[in-house]
## 1
Amino acid sequence: MATATKLDPAKWAKAKAKAKAKMGGKHSARAMQLAVKYYKQMGGRYKGSKSSSNKLSKWSKQDWGYVSKGDEKKSKAKKGRYLPKSVRTSLTDAQKRATNRKKKEASKKGSQYAKYSKSIAKKVRMA
């Protein structure tokens, strides 16, 4: 499986550092997506082509958002679950309440992650 190779490692390191700083100093898929944008803006080029199974490309094309409207304006501890649109629209009201409650409880305890229920985990995998 072919993978595109970055031709300028120094530009990539600078782009990664800038993106991680903007995203709170943490490595994440969103930070790497932003790093690619910065790398291209700096004139960074690639050799070869992207793999057809590139997860970041798939993630970028999905319409991600919060399960509850208005969560984007709330503080981190009060935000609910962040899911692809295909999953958000397939959830029942009870599932939405339950998954938001679980995420908010984990956030209050200082955890960035909250496990999905089995039914929601299956939907996320299929998205």
## 2
Amino acid sequence: MRTTLSLDDDVAQLLAKEVRRSGDSFKEVVNRFLRAGLMASKRPARKPFVIKPWDLGPPSGLNFDNVEDLLDTLEGPERR
């Protein structure tokens, strides 16, 4: 199929650079990169990464209302 295509200058430079590097024709390089881009767009979207929160509150029976009592419970009264 023949078609006319207007390329941005930066894209044309990148394609010309790939033509020189690979030795392939301009047509082959354009088709290869178009095919790769179109195939990549067909890939299913990844599922979003979900972080499951953990409750980091005090263990049952403990509270942070009175720090001295909490320290006595966790470290013992000899901590002083």
## 3
Amino acid sequence: MEVFRLSGIYGPGRSVIDTLRSGTARRIAKPGQVFNRIHVDDIARVLAAAIDTDTGRPIFNISDDEPAPPEDAVAYAAELLGLPIPPIVAFEEAGLSGMAASFWSECKRVSNRRIRRELGVELLYPTFREGLRALAVQ
């Protein structure tokens, strides 16, 4: 049995593109905080490759190539859409609770080397930039 650990999932209807368009996006900043992300299409590619591969490995990180500060993704998406970049909100002032606060409780930097090396997967969206560009035109 294999375990697949997913990074921050995004895709159509579930991304900063959508929150910017709805006017609800926030640029929350926490010094040193980075997250890996993964586009839903790349999740499907990894799982399909794993079905056909006997690796003997129990755990795979399904993530993109570039852990990045969350505020960078929001700013990049705003630029793509030609919208104003939301102001920075300090993590301590963001008022996050429950699942959101838990998600931010630790830095989420992981390596996807194993999915590339052992499953032979090349990501369609190796960073948030490619993924958000694709979503911006949908």
## 4
Amino acid sequence: MNRNLAPGKKIYFASDFHLGAPSHAESLNREKRIVAWLDDIKQDAEIIFLVGDLFDFWFEYKRVVPKGYVRFMGKLAELADSGIEVIVFLGNRDMWMTNYFEKELGVTTIRRPKTYIFNNKKFYIGHGDGLGKGDYGYKFLKVIFEGKLPRFLFNRVMHPNLGMLLGYIWTKFSWRKKREAEQYMGDEKEYLVGYSKEIEANEHHDYYIFGHRHTKVDIQISPNARYINLGDWIWYYSYAVFDGEDIVLTSLKTEA
């Protein structure tokens, strides 16, 4: 169903904040910049899409949530309370999010890619992990980790202090290999581009919007369809804005 934006209102998209990484000091500085950005865009935002991996690791115990990030979560609650719609797509780093954001912050959480229509423009939005051809090892692990048994065991067997410690130890291994921004590998090697083209061959969308790859990319995949990867807030501090007619992919670092 088509939804028209109110006059002067916009939709914002961002992803891959990875709060908690690679150190507390760096994460805190990033969190403050994210909060400042959210505070700035609330003037004309009607909807804010946060497209996954907001945290470097996240697990919700039944009565415990991870320590930290209070500035960020407080700002999301403020935005939602003010009437701005905030929609979070779960990424591979925060796949164990359950209902805390919805119940306490008023934020909608979505686990799978979803199609929206705004101002007669069709959007296909998702984090991007596990989509397209290849990466079968990760896809196998994702099925396991998203199952009820691993979540039950992590929740009931481990004390939260130990569980969160193990989670952050696991994520730190991945950062040892990430010393610089990811590079776009070309249309033929980028699996999300291929995935978008496959969908476009069967059903037209004006925009395919993903995170996950940590690449800031805006390309045509057909005469009337664009693939946009939102980059991240580790290297790019990037986001996209839809003004009712078109999308612009930009970055805080280039806005002086």
